[in-house]
Amino acid sequence: MNLQISQGRVIDPAHGVDRITDLFVADDRIAGIDNAPPGFVVDRKLDARGRIVIPGLVDIAARLREPGQEHKATIASETHAAAAAGITSLCCPPDTNPVIDSPAEVELIQQRAHAAGFCRVHTIGALTAGLKGQTLSEMAALKAAGCVGVSNALQPLANPLVLRRAMEYAASQGLTLFLHPFDHALANQGCAHEGTIATRLGLPGIPTAAETAAVGQLLALVEQTGARTHFCRLSTARAVNMVARARYDGLPISADVCAHQLFLTEQDIGGFNSLCHTLPPLRTRADLETLRKGVAHGALAVICSDHQPHEIDAKQAPFPATEAGISALETLLPLTLRLVEEDVLSLPEAIARVTSGPAEVLGIAAGTLGVNQTADICIYDPDERWQLIPKRILSHGKNTPFSGWSFTGRVTHTLLGGRIVYQVDSAS
Amino acid sequence: MTGGAVTMRPPGPLPAGIQLTPDGQLRHFLTIEGLPRALLLEILDTAESFAGVKNQAVKKVPLLRGKTIVNLFFEASTRTRTTFELAAKRLSADVLNLNINTTATVKGESLLDTLRNLEAMYTDMFVVRHADSGAAQFIARHVAPHVSVINAGDGRHAHPTQAMLDMFTIRRHKPDFSRLCVAIVGDIMHSRVARSQIHALSILGTGEVRVVGPKTLIPAEVENLGVRVFHSMADGLKDADVIMMLRLQKERMQGALLPSEHEYFQLYGLTEERLSVAKETAIVMHPGPINRGVEIGSEVADGSRSVILQQVTYGIAVRMAVMSMAIGARAGR
Predict the structure, then answer these.
(1) What is the CA radius of gyration of chain B?
(2) DSSP secondary structure code for residue B7 in this structure
(3) For position A170, which CATH number holds?
(4) pLDDT tens for each residue of A99-154
(5) Which residue of A16, A127, A137, A267 has the fewest CB atoms within a 10 Å radius of its CB?
(6) Mean pLDDT across the stretch A330-349?
(7) How far apart are CA A52 and CA A381, in angstroms?
(8) Do B214 and B252 contact (CB within 8 A), yes or no?
(9) ipTM for the predicted complex
(10) What's the pTM value of the predicted model, to 2 decimals?
(11) Strand pairing partners for A123?
């Protein structure tokens, strides 16, 4: 089928495109921009006047909870939510149950995602067997099965030697490491940023050094091994500066931040608000400002959702006993657009952080609208104002702290390989 | 009917002023923080009126006759639970003691499930102790509107009745808070008592509040609560009017917080000699139970400046005051 998306503002950061024009889709591919390719017969026309047409979003970290925690969410439910959020590729960390440490789990997830048909699901394989931090996983097999990288998620490694060897081995297989800079000993089972708020509430604190000490160790080992490494979920100003400096020095590293770290601080847990219980914890206003600068300057090339849907009971307990994480797929684009409203960065730069930026880190052909690329497209209405109501989000996890927030800009269509997988009710 | 029906509310920020009724009376007593000074004074004054009850032949007043109070203790306690029980009985309430050993029960049962099980018991007040910070707030958020929650200690967060009985004790000896220098000594980091004391002292307009201890036991950015930090006893106790010692848990020797009880006593134990730099009229307090020879020497604990046993006695009057005010506030609506 041939589709013409007409007269939208097309923004494709990877190709420096930002103009009102037409986009032509033939079957599952982008066939042309501005002008139809020769012999193109339009089967369907999608009027995008007043809308913005961008590559489908690429989310570098989203927990789908399947296999193992289907009471929280399923691949079908969360990929549906992703489609509604304009996300066409997402990446699932290995801490499922069983963990993604063999091709069987990769295949299971791929099959379920394919059957649901809403969103491409990539997997990051376990760095160590069972994520236990002791012995290496069979990384070559994981890569052959389709894993885009390896990670130990938020599980600790036995010692720096295991880390060094895992980095060397992954590099030998051409796999990127996705590592969380989080020193478990220094974090000491804390549940909030070590500072004024944690002191006031009597919550065990996680010091800034739990992140910076880990970043320092990782940087030393990247220097030693040359392993291509992505730093996951930075939360502190100091870590952003360390990573920016190391990138300037030419180390093969990249880093991301999750969208909520750019809007919430330790203040938000003030009344023991378990919806703001996250790991790494929400930090200070100064950290937030530097994280925003990192996103603006590109030291943080990726904004991700770090989606962690929970059943509501997981948040119904005294703060330290609640599970960490936010249901965040459906606030990824709204929060990113809000950064533009708040003059943190330009719209094309913001779009790059959730499309071409993460695609490049993952090494996948996505996040652009180039001719012959797969037609994964998000179309949104930049003027629609709406209010977030948790029970209306599609994710099975209603655990969002952004209840009642007003956002400007709403997805109207999501196309996956040229097929409309989401269309807002009121859209034509 | 007075059933403790648990209501299901989604998690989220806590409504401001959850502790007070719309007309400013005490509804729950969860933390000292944020309470108006007049209310703290009302608690102290009400406690004064109850302090005489113990001298009567019949030690009961009928204020809470027909009311049921549940002592809901998820963490072991003898002293606090006993004084709450005595306070409730002197107010003529019926008391139910539930000691829920969280390690012994199935870990899977949530706090909400436990509360749901208490729905069937027609109760008016929960007195709650729990190992997690925020537990009392969490429970207050979910109980039926006619149930009051009194925090008897939640994690490291708050122990408001202990702080109020401390304020009561101080006021009996030194009525003008604005002229006082108060030093809180020891394990501030893990202490809910210290946090509540700091808030209470600050709301009552105390001249100077100090915390004294090694850095391993002082929480981050504690100065923002309005206290001065000292790492040496000689500096921290100098010219103090009130010295509030904290209990040191023996398990602090694990986890590299302190080298030994011996060295702790050498540096931070309260002895007559250390006390000599404080004001001559200084009083010494301790929330109990005391570790003699760890945080305090026997000669001080049993000495003339110690008001430690008075604290225990006043604890009953203060808890009577808080319980009667919380239930009275509801009855008045």
Answers:
(1) 20
(2) P
(3) 3.20.20.140
(4) 999 999 999 999 999 999 999 999 999 999 999 999 999 999 999 999 999 999 99
(5) A16
(6) 98
(7) 6
(8) no
(9) 0.92
(10) 0.94
(11) A92
| CA–CA gap between residue B246 and residue B186 (Å, rounded) | 5
Is A205 close to B220, i.e. CB distance below 8 A? yes
Residues of B in contact with A399 (CB under 8 A): 11
Distance CA B192, CA A292 (A): 36
Using an 8 Å CB-CB cutoff, list chain A residues near B156.
Answer: 202-204
Q: Which of A188, A312, A316 to mutate to test the interface with B (most CBs of B within 10 A)?
A: A316
pLDDT digits (tens, 9 = 90+) for B60-83: 888 999 999 999 999 888 888 999
- Other beta carbons within 10 Å of B191: 25
Catalytic residue, candidates A306, A376, A381, A383: A306
Q: Between chains, do A316 and B33 touch, taking CB under 8 Å as contact?
A: no
pLDDT of residue B71: 93
Task: Give me the half-sphere count of Cα atoms (radius 13 Å) on the Cβ side of residue B117.
Answer: 9
Which pLDDT value is given to residue B1?
A: 37
Q: How far is CA A226 from its chain centroid?
A: 25
Does residue A306 carry a catalytic annotation?
Answer: yes
Q: What tokens were used for A23?
A: 């986009």
Take residue A77 and report the two structure tokens written for it: 């439910």
Q: A257 forms bridges with which residues in the sheet? A: A303
Q: Which amino acid is at A410?
A: R
The distance from CA B141 to its chain's CA centroid, rounded to whole angstroms, is 20
Structurally, chain A folds into a number of domains equal to: 1
* Contact call for B112 and A316, based on CB within 8 A: yes
Start-end of H helices in A272-402 = 285-297, 332-341, 347-353, 356-362
With a CB-CB cutoff of 8 Å, which residues 314-333 of chain A face chain B?
315-322
Contact B250, B190 (CB under 8 A): no
**Is position A315 within any domain?**
yes
Q: Residue A324: which domain range?
A: 56-362
Nearest alpha-carbon partner for A216 in A189, A249, A246: A246
**In contact, A100 and A109? CB cutoff 8 Å:** yes
Asked whether residue A307 is domain-assigned, the answer is: yes
Is A413 inside a domain boundary? no
Do strands B208-212 and B181-185 pair parallel, antiparallel, or not at all (unpaired)?
parallel
Angle between helices A103-116 and A75-84 (to 10 degrees): 50
Among the partner-chain residues B14, B155, B192, the one whose CB lies closest to the CB of A273 is: B14
Pairs across A and B, CB distance < 8 A = 98
pLDDT of residue B3: 42
> Contact A101/A131 with Cβ under 8 angstroms?
yes
Alpha helices in A271-413, H assignment, sequence order: 285-297, 332-341, 347-353, 356-362
Residue B97 has phi, psi (to 5 degrees) of -100, 120
- Asked whether residue A120 is assigned to any structural domain, the reply reads yes
Cis peptide before A281 (omega within 30 of 0): no
Domains and CATH numbers, chain B: 37-155+313-331 (3.40.50.1370), 160-302 (3.40.50.1370)
Surface of B (100-119) touching A: CB under 8 A: 110-112
First to last CA, chain A: 18
Structure tokens belonging to residue A242: 């360390």
Show residues of chain B in contact with A321, CB under 8 Å. Answer: 111, 132
Report the C-alpha gap between B159 and B31 in whole angstroms: 7
**Distant-in-sequence, close-in-space partners of A179: CB < 8 Å, separation ≥ 6:** A151, A152, A218, A229, A230, A231, A232
CA–centroid distance for A335 within its chain = 12
